[in-house]
Amino acid sequence: MFDVLIIGGGVTGAAVARELSRYQASVCLLEKEGDVCCGTSKANSAIVHAGYDAKEGSLMAELNVKGNQRMESLAEELDIPFARNGSLVVCLEEEELPGLVELYHRGIANGVPGLRILDHGEALAMEPNLTEGVFAALYAPTAGIICPFQLTIALAENAVVNGVEFQFHTEVTEMIRIQEGYRVRTNRGDYTARCVVNAAGVYADKIHNMVSRKKLTIIARRGEYCLLDKKAGAHVSKTIFPLPGKYGKGILVAPTIHGNLILGPTAVDVEDKESTNTTRGGLEEVMGKAGLYVRELPLRQVITSFAGLRAHEEGHEFIIGEPGDAENFFDCAGIESPGLTSSPAIGEMVAEQIREKLHLCEKPDFMARRKGIHNLTELSLAERKTLIREKPEYGRIVCRCEMISEGEILDAIRRPLGAKSLDGVKRRTRAGAGRCQGGFCSPKVMELLARENGGDLMEVTKSGGDSRIVAGRNKDVL
User: Fold this and answer.
1) Among all residues, which ones are annotated catalytic?
2) 15 with 114: CB under 8 angstroms?
3) Average pLDDT per run of 10 along the chain, which is 478 residues long?
4) Considering just the CA atoms, what is the radius of gyration of the chain in Å?
5) Which CATH superfamily does the domain covering 1-81+145-216+314-372 fall into?
6) Is the pTM of this model over 0.90?
């Protein structure tokens, strides 16, 4: 019997786990994949939104602004990169100006600081690669960029250090109300808990509908992206948006926290909640629409494309808390954009609701700080020499695109919730995330994974499950 079971290991589930780990409670997180950050949290725009887009008075607006305000200190506590680069929403015609003014007033009502409407000259002076046709732009200085992988993994690692248990490859199949709380049936046996948190992303409706008569529908909204090489990373310094429309904030152009340039996403509702394929039409739309308001995009520098799914709820609102007819069951549903931004505030809100429900007491020894993996490129020459002298594996570069050493990869594998796959290593270290997309470093990373995890190359996967990379040995093929 756990005090709390959390279903889902994305950024929302990890944030709730980390906040609950402040209290004297037994907490377990169930994730159907083999690692955290395998769903919506692994494929999004990596943007910390300022908070002017969500409807005034909505929970989405409140938690967006709170999450934005919390992000700087959280990144410092968890030792992950974060930057407030600011954002611009551009309009190209005078007829669009009322929409920009409406966004400005909504942002003021939501409590977003520092908003300004820039004219043509001011916008181009701030961002010279905007199209010459820009008429005006809404500037939000508090917008930022972050790595969604590192945020989710850091929250989860910190939760583990503070006592939260994680169970992977564990898919929930049924929930039954019992006197003490809930019996949660999975493909790996039953769990019982006094409280359950539903942070299952695009599957949050499935989990919710197991216990509540008030049915919920979550639509999987696919967004496609193009990622450009670091040579293109300085093409813009701010996150550039068009005016938002029916399907969201539109196709953005933004630098990433690691120095790349990202374009996207599209917005297409799909029935298949695993449909993360890219399409020729979608990628052409990304590149075509991005070029309408940012000129001379270096599209020959695209190094990869990908797609992610947003958990869209028809009312376009976060659904958080007990549904009314399912006491001690707490939804975190409909967490689409600005869900990444809002995750710290969502974690705090849900943890506080459960603290009050279960009368939890704070731990006197909660550890808020977490030390990340050494990043050689951020160390001085003297610091690098000292580190390599103490640990020679940091002197052996494995990924030359991103300059990632064997020491960093071993750290990623050996940490709490250590990497078990190529994607797990990539999300923790960026080995394989550069220009060649793992074409040169993958064999060495596979060798290290096999050695550290006590298996062989036949068992190493790209992303867990059946995604094995080596199909057979030569003797088997012959």
Assistant:
1) 49
2) no
3) 98 98 98 96 96 96 98 98 98 95 98 98 98 97 98 98 98 96 98 98 98 97 98 98 76 97 97 96 97 96 97 96 96 97 98 98 97 90 94 96 97 96 97 96 96 89 91 65
4) 22
5) FAD/NAD(P)-binding domain (3.50.50.60)
6) yes
